[in-house]
Amino acid sequence: MVKNFDAELPAGYVAARHEYDERYGPHIARARNWRIVAMLTAATALLAVCGLLWLSSRARVVPFVVMVDRLGRPVASGLADQTGTADERLIKATLFAWLEAARTVTPDDRQQRKFVDHAEAHVAHGTQADAYLNDFYRADSPYARAQTESVAVQVNDVLASTNRTYTIDWTETTRDNFGVVKSTERWKASMTFMTIVPTKQEEILINPIGLYLVNINWTKVL
Question: Is the terminal CB of the chain with fewer CB neighbours within 10 Å at N or C?
Fold first, then answer.
């Protein structure tokens, strides 16, 4: 037998309690529901923050490499971890761009400085290539030549001799300051490189695939 406790209370108290429940019961229920929702929201936010922290601790930067020639035209592209330094397209594009930068002469002093900086950024310090490039710039300074003439470089072919040595064939057209062609010459070079995976942002921007020349030898084709 279920005992009815309301029957033992005074009628006025029971009526007052019913009145209180009818008047404030919905508000109390809503407040309880909002507290539950707030706690669930806080728990969800905490889980989201923990997940983001976990993902950030495992994230790594994968540069997207786009190689362009000196006119800004794209030559090759791809994610660095997909193409890698062993990708022959990127190797050829890097050597192509390097040769143009090293051998081009332009009266635009700012552009010439960019070419020289680009060439030096792809040569390993203390190597034969480093000494070779420095000797070339000292003996035949592009800044001095730019006072009287300009040199345009047209790369004809880039071929692999080994997995680290490539042969490049190109044509140089020399013009005076009025644009008149002074000479057209064929050149050939042998270049050996090593690769160092870039880790710093400035290295990625300057030399994204980490290709550094260690040996250079070029000669005019007679």
Answer: N
Per-residue pLDDT of 163-203, as tens digits, reads: 899 999 999 999 999 999 999 999 999 999 998 887 777 77
Q: Please tell me the class of the 64-221 domain.
A: alpha beta
- The residue behind tokens 């490539």 is 166
Residues (pLDDT < 50) of the chain are 1-3, 5, 69-70, 75-76, 80-85
User: Do the beta carbons of residue 96 and residue 158 sit within 8 Å?
Assistant: yes
Contact by Cβ (8 Å): 67, 87: no
- Per-domain residue ranges of the chain: 5-58, 64-221
pTM of the model as a whole? 0.62
Residue 120 is predicted with a pLDDT of 94
* Number of neighbours of residue 133 by Cβ within 10 angstroms: 20
**Contact call for residues 105 and 146 (beta carbons, < 8 A):** yes
